Amino acid sequence: MSDPFSRLAARMDAITVRKMG
Known about the structure:
Layout: H1 4-20
């Protein structure tokens, strides 16, 4: 799975989790 969207989504998810706590 080498998709730019998938990687961006994973990065956004990680940032959201870190911001949430």
